Amino acid sequence: MRGSLWWIVPSLLLLAGCAHDVIIGDPPPPPPPPPPVADGAGNWRIPATVLDRATDGSMSICTPVGHLCARLRHGARWTLEAEVDGGARQTLAVLPPVADRGDTFYLLDPVIFREAGGAWLIGVERERFLNEPGVSRSNRILSLFRWQAGADEARLVAVVPEAGSRYLRRCPVRHGEPPRPACTQDFDFVALFDLDLSNRAGPPRFVLESHADIFPGPHAPSPGPGVTPAMMRERDPVCSYRRVFSFDAAAERYVADTPLPPCADYLDF
Asked: Is 221 contained in some domain?
């Protein structure tokens, strides 16, 4: 081992002598999105590429071969637009106005779904943040729009929670001191909404899986010797769930196999 490293010291000295000539290039481009995958019925999950993002929040994404491009535009109102095969851009939906309290942002979900019959499913994420004395809140809600190329507009077919948090501060925080565990409580919720690849017939089916926990939990041990933060964090069994969403043709929207719990501690403002 020692003999095989004889060149390191001279090499380091050489590099040190030339340090002023080192030029740091641009960071490498992000890796390409993973390839599309399909369920057994021929419905596709297609990761898209983000083409641009403006300072006002407007952004564009395209499927890998550019077959569909979606754009979120921030003007007098937020609008969802799309074009197919380089055709004319079309406005598909006008999004709800932002809330008066806190900060609201819209984002395009970088995964687009395509039905076997040709319709597209485009997701728009709405993020909200609010800081008030004693409490900070945030949530992210996914709205899924279904659009058949040539139709005048897209239809809202699903609204599901993707993330939420609430941070409570019950005691004054002294400058330079971390908050005491007894004075704070965190509520954290995260969920994934994705194509059910086990589906074998009909329209796409989706699975929503969530995990929620509280720190410190209501049954957590009191802080003390031998008590780690992980021991004080408790999983919430009600808001940690799995739901399957199937398309209800009569209602023209996706419906969960079991109603979602409200999980207000994590999601409400």
From this structure: yes
Determine if the peptide bond prior to 229 is cis (ω within 30°).
Answer: no
**What CA–CA distance (Å, rounded) separates 32 from 29?**
9
Give the global pTM: 0.82
Tokens representing 253?
A: 């929207």
Instruction: Find out whether 44 and 121 touch, Cβ atoms under 8 Å.
Output: no
Q: Six-digit token pair at 201?
A: 């017939």
Query: DSSP letter at 214?
Result: E
119 belongs to a structural domain: yes
In a domain, 185, yes or no: yes
Is residue 69 within 8 Å of 221, Cβ to Cβ? no
The answer to whether position 29 is within a domain reads: no
Whether 61 and 49 have beta carbons less than 8 Å apart is answered as yes
127-138 pLDDT, tens digit each: 999 999 889 999
Residue partners of 127: CB distance under 8 A and separation at least 6 = 104, 105, 106, 107, 138, 139, 140
Beta bridge pairs of residue 256: 245
Q: How far apart are CA 194 and CA 142, in angstroms?
A: 11
Q: Contact 197/37 with Cβ under 8 angstroms? A: yes
Using DSSP, state whether 15 is helix, strand or coil: helix
Mean pLDDT of 192-207: 98
Domain count, the chain: 1
